[in-house]
Amino acid sequence: MEKFHGHEIFVQLLHLLLLLLLSLQCLSSDYTPPSKYFINCGSSSNISDTRRTFVGDESSDSFTLSPKQEAVEDNRPSPATSQIYQTARLFRSPSSYEFDIDQIGIYLVRLHFFPFSSPTDLFTALFDVSISGLPVLLHNFTVQNTRNLPLIKEFLLTVNISKFIVKFEPSQQSSFAFVNAIEVFIAPDSFIPDSALLVTPAGSKNSSYKGISSRVLQKVHRINVGGSDIEPDSDTLWRKWVPDDPYLFNKSAARNRSASTDTSYQRILSGYNDSTRYIAPPLVYMSAKEMNKNGNDPLQFFNISWGFDVSKNAKHLLRVHFCYFISSSGSFNPRLNLYIYSFFSQKIDNIPLGAPFFLDLLVVSDDSGFLNVSIGPQIDSPVNNSFLNGLEIMEIMEELGWVSMENESKKKTTPLLTGLVVGGLALVGIVIIVLSLRLKCRKEKPAEASHWLPVTVDGGLSSHSRVYEATIHGSPVPHLNLGLKIPFAEIQSATNNFSRKLLVGKGGFGEVYQGLLRNGMKVAVKRSQPGHGQGLPEFQTEILVLSKIRHHHLVSLIGYCDEMNEMILVYEFMQEGTLRNHLYGSDLPCLSWKQRLEICIGAARGLHYLHTGSEGGIIHRDIKSTNILLDDNFVAKVADFGLSRSGLPQQTHVSTAVKGTFGYLDPEYFRTQQLTDKSDVYSFGVVLLEVLCARPVINPSLPREQMNLAEWVMVWQKKGLLEQVIDPLLVGKVNLNSLRKFGETAEKCLKEDGTDRPTMGDVMWDLEYAFQLQQTAMQREPLEDSTNDAASTFPLPTIQRYPSYSLSISDIHGPKRRDGSSETTESEVFSQLRIADGR
Fold it and tell me: Which of 686, 675, 680 is nearest to 714 (CA)?
C-alpha cells in the first residue's frame, strides 16, 4: 500500500513540475489578444466583430459540446441587436462545453444571456452554471427583464488543467437552461494580483490578503469615472465600462475633466502598479472626476464620494485607476487620500504626471449592502484638488478555489513538452528527494489516508478568521428573549432539512426557506451561512427589535435559533413576497393604483409606529421595496430590522457609521453621519417613486439623465408633468388629483434638508388623502378616472384631517389617540378616510 501511495505522489509531483514549466514559458512571452474561445451558441454561423470571431457551436471542432441539444432563434430580431444575441443554445438536461487549454494562467470567462422572442419563453429559464467540477458559479439563475439589453456575467479564475468545462444544468426537472454566447480566453500575465492590502469593516491593520489569484472572481462593477460608456469594441479585452454619475452621492461636489492628449503608458519608478492598455484602455485614463471648486455650493469642497451595491459581508477586489493630467498652478501635483467606508484611508503621494497607474485593495464589505469609496486631498497637499479615473469591483466567490486537476493525466502533448524534456531532468533529483522524505515521514508515524489536495484557497486569511468576525459557538446571545428560542431539530423538520425545493430567496444574511411548524403555522426561515460569525450584530438587533414590538404592518418574529454555529430567524410567512417583485422583474400580475396606494399607506403606518412607539423610537435605516413584504391579502408589512437604531425621543440624532442601500440612502445622513428618523422618510420617498414608475431606483443601462430614478422623476414633478413617467400599465387608470398629491408627497420626502421633510405621520395622512381622491374619482363616471381626463384636475377638495395616533407595545390591540380621546382601532381610523369599501 505504501508503494502505491509513493507512486501516486510521484505522478502528482510530475504534474506540478509540468505546470511549473508551462507557467515559466507563459511568463516569457508577450501577451497578444487571443483568438479563442469565442462561441456563437445555437448557430452554425461565424460572427466577426472588432478583433475577434464568434464561432458557431453547431459544427466547430475546436471545442466539444456534449450532448448537443436544441438551438433556438429570435422570431423577430431587431436590426439593432447584435447577431450573437439572435440565437441561443437551449438545454433541457445537463450539458457541457469542453475546451482544450494549452496555457496556464488567469482566464476570463464571459457568459452572455439575452432572452429574445421564441417558442420557448427564455425568461422562464432556471438553471445552474458550473465549471470543471467546482461548485456552481450561478445557482438557480434566471434572466430577468433587461430592457432589451444583454446580461453578461464575467468571471476571472486560474485554469491549470488541459480540459476546461463549462456546464449548464436545469435547476428543476421542468426547467431548462440557455446561453447566447461564451467567451473563454487567457488574460495578460499578473492580471490579477496574488495579494493585496486587506481592508475590513473595522479598518486595516496593514495586513495583506494572500491567494487572490487562486480564487474565482466575479465582476460586479466596472466604472469609467468622469467619462461616458466604453463599449467592448473600444476596450482591449472587450470589457464594458459605464459612467460613474449614477453612483455619486453628491453630484455638485464633482465635475468631469478630459485629457487633451492620448494616454502614454510608461514605467513608473515611484512604487505604484504600472498600468497597461490591457489593465484599462486609454479612454479610461483620458477622463476623470475632480473636485468642483466653482459656484456657490457649500458642498463644493467635500470629498468626492461614490456608493456601489455589493454583497453583504463579502470579500471584494477593489481596483482604482489614476492618471493625473489636470493642469495646476506651478509644478505641484496633488497628494490624495483614498477612503473606503469611513474607517480606512490610503495616502497616494508622488503622483506622476500623465502616467497611468492603479491600486488594488482587498475590501471586506460590511452588512450595509454597499461599498463606499471617496477621494479627497490630504491636509497638506500643495494642490487643493482630488481626482479619480476609473474603478473596478470584483467579488471573490466563496468556496471556489483552484480548478480541479481531474483531467491532468489525459493532457495532450504540445510543443511546451519540449521544456519538460530539457528542464525536467534537472529537477528529477528534487522530486526523488521530496518523495524520499515523504516516505520516511510515513514510516515514523501511523499510516493515514492520503489524498492529493490543491493549494488552500484562503492563502493566509481564512474565511473563518476571528480577526474581524464574531463567533457564536453555542453560547447564548445576551439579552435576547429566551422564550422565542426554537430548537434546531424543529427547524430542520419544518424545512425538510433545508430542502432546496423549499428555498424561496437569498440575501446578504443568508438563505430563506418556507417552513411548516408542528402546530401547522407556515413560516419563513432565514438561515445564515453556517460556521460564520458574519451578520451577528444584524442577527441580535433583529431579535431585540422584533421581540419588543408588534404591529399589523410590521413582519412578526416567531422565534430564533442560535445553537452551535447557527443563526436562524423564523418569521411569519408572507405569501406574496416582496413589493419589488410585484412592480418589476417578474411575471406577476400588475398591481392596480388602488393596491399600490394601500400598500404604501400600510408601510407608512408601520414606519410611523416605529418612529413614535413607546420603546423610545426606532429608525429602520434600510427602507427599500425588497424590505416591504405582502401577505396573501396584499397587506404591506415592513421587514428586516438588522440595521435598526433606537432612542429617538431622547436625542435629535444618532451619530453612526453610514448604513443602508445605495439609491435609497439619505444624502444628508451620508454627509453628516448623523442618523434621524427623516433618513427613513427620504428612503420611503424613493420607494414611492419606485411604486409609481415600476422600475429600479438605479439603472445604469438607461440614458444618463434617467439612471437615477429620484433625480429623473423630480425633474418631471417640478414641470407638473408627472403623468409622463408613470408605469405605462397605469396610464388611463389614475386620477390626476390623486397622482398630483402622491407626487407632492414624494417630493417632500426627498427634500435635501431633513428638517424640511415631513414626519412619517404626515406622509401617512397625505397618502390617505391621495387614496380618497382616487376613490372619489371612481365613484364618478368611469371615464373620469383617467390620467387623460382634464375634468379630473379640479382643485383638491378639503378633507377633514383626523389626529394621528401611535400604538403602545403594551396595548397592541387597542391603540389610543394622541389627543386622549376615546379609543379608536386602526381599521376604524382608516375607514373614516375611505369612501368606498376595501378590496
Answer: 686
